[in-house]
Known about the structure:
Mean pLDDT: 77
Radius of gyration: 20 Å
Number of domains: 2
Structural class: mainly alpha
Strand content: under 5%
Largest sheet: none
CATH topology of the largest domain: Rna Polymerase Sigma Factor, Chain: A
Distance between the termini: 14 Å
Amino acid sequence: MIPLLNKDYDSDSYFLLEKLKEGDRKIFTWLFDYYYSSLVIYADRYMHDQNAAEDIVQSVFVRMWENRLEIKAASIRFHLVSSVKNRCIDLIRKEGTQGKYIRRQMNQQNLQEGEFWAESELRELIETAIAKLPARCREIFVLSRFEGLKSKEIAQQLNLKQRTVETQITHALKVLRNDLKDYLFQLFFLL
């Protein structure tokens, strides 16, 4: 299956926030690793500039560390997403005319914090969706997508017809596409 990020710490926001406020660098590093790539994707949807998105996310993490005692949010995820969004908007406003164009695009895209998912959260959603597949269908899908076997190789290995394998892969993709439809934009970048 898909490996998840190491979850050494409980994802309970209160616990993480308290440890962060105590200056626990392991928690900070864990939060950075957990959220960084997805926050960059989120920021890039506003900025349309990968380097600017990376700079914004890094500055948000630096600021979070420096001001960790003043964090009032109940959720670290909400705090990070809001901070990235606000930083993007601030930079867009400073850009003037070009910023107005970007803001118009943002309004058309209707970006919301609810659309943000950390990479590990997406991986967990994928694993859950795959686990719901019927056993044989799941086995074929995993061999195809994660083991890299071709339909013919899977058919030989499982003593099935190649057409059966192809039908099962198509069925799995249809089910996953339906189960994960709300996350397809970020899954595109993850996979």
